[in-house]
Amino acid sequence: MKRNTYIIGGAILVLAAAFSAYSLMREPDVAAPVAANTDGAKFSGKITAVETGCYYDATCSVTIGGKKVIVTTGGRGPWQEKPVGRILGADSIGDLESRIGDRANVYATTTETGDYTLYGDTNFYIEVEK
């Protein structure tokens, strides 16, 4: 009985190590949000969509006034070392789902793809009005 426990425990450790190694070596499927410039832009609008699929290698974003704002990107990459702004007026991006229809103010920079991103400056923000 004790021997079986060691075998099962060892197998779990081997699988965990293999999965970790795969995760570290795997290239993310989503391109990092690259800031097109260092200048920020301010705009306001209604929150119309919240995308929270950034668990591993997708992008979490909020659409405000018809403009997509990248909040965070999953996966591993050099963009994770860049400064990133914050969400004000809500505890997390998940909390914004219940705020669809509310107005928000944004200070962010544009990306090479024409979206906006909070990456690049800790002063960038999405501020949900009360």
Structure description:
This protein is an alpha+beta fold. Helix content is 18%, strand content 32%. It is built from one helix and seven strands; from the N terminus they run H-E-E-E-E-E-E-E. A five-stranded mixed β-barrel has the order 1-2-3-6-5. Strand 5 and strand 6 form a beta hairpin.
Quickly count the helices: 1
Largest sheet: 5 strands, mixed, barrel
Rounded mean pLDDT is 78
Instruction: Give me the count of strands.
Output: 7
Any low-confidence stretches, pLDDT <50, length ≥5? 13-32
Helical fraction equals: 10-25%
**Which band does the percent of strand residues land in?**
25-35%
> What separation lies between the terminal Cα atoms?
60 Å
- What best-fitting shape do the alpha-carbon axes yield? globular
Q: Over all CA atoms, what is the radius of gyration?
A: 19 Å
H/E series: HEEEEEEE
